[in-house]
Amino acid sequence: MIAKWRINPVINIIQDKLDKALLIVGAQAVTYVAGKIRVNRSIVTGNLINSITYSTRDKFLPLTAKTNGSNLSPSESQTVKIGTTVVYAPRVEFGFIGTDSLGRKFNQAPKSFLRAALKENEGKLYSIFQRAVKI
């Protein structure tokens, strides 16, 4: 019991650090992606730039936590998602050839803005995360 009592505050500190680190990385990733869109003049819609967002989900769970009967590890339970809320964003990112649900015909080449910016800044984002979780 004594060891458990001493470990819980440490786990709380680590959880807080991870939560804050994910928020910092998410915000910085949005900045990088929006900056890449602004530099890449082929994507000129302000709506797309302003829609880039991030969210965190599933706070850190102890290894004994159960979800659907299986143990979760920290890497499975901590995430930050970077994305956009506009419906046409996948068409811009991946391209689209064909007719959409409104009957419009497209022959649009992909203009990767999200994945390219994240890949380009992966090392920087990892470094930011590492600094944020130092105890």
Report Rg.
19 Å
Number of helical elements: 6
What is the number of beta strands?
6
* General shape: elongated
- The first-to-last residue Cα distance is 25 Å
Structural class based on helices, strands and sheet pairing: alpha+beta
Oligomer: single chain
Report low-confidence residues grouped into runs of 5 or more: 58-76
Provide the residue-averaged pLDDT.
77
Strand order of the largest sheet: 1-4
Largest sheet: 2 strands, antiparallel
Percentage of residues in DSSP E strands: 15-25%
Helix content: 40-55%
Order of helices and strands: HHEEEHEHEEHH
Can I get a quick summary?
With 135 residues, this protein is α+β, with helices and mostly antiparallel strands. The protein contains six helices and six strands.
How does this structure look, described?
The protein is of the alpha+beta class and 135 residues long. It has one domain. Helices cover 54% and strands 18% of the residues. The protein is built from six helices and six strands. The protein has a two-stranded antiparallel ribbon with strand order 1-4. Strands 2-3 form a two-stranded antiparallel sheet. Helix 1 packs across helix 5 and helix 1 runs antiparallel to helix 6. The longest helix has 38 residues. The chain is elongated, with a radius of gyration of 19 Å. The chain starts with a helix and ends with a helix. The relative contact order is 0.19. About 14% of the residues have low confidence.
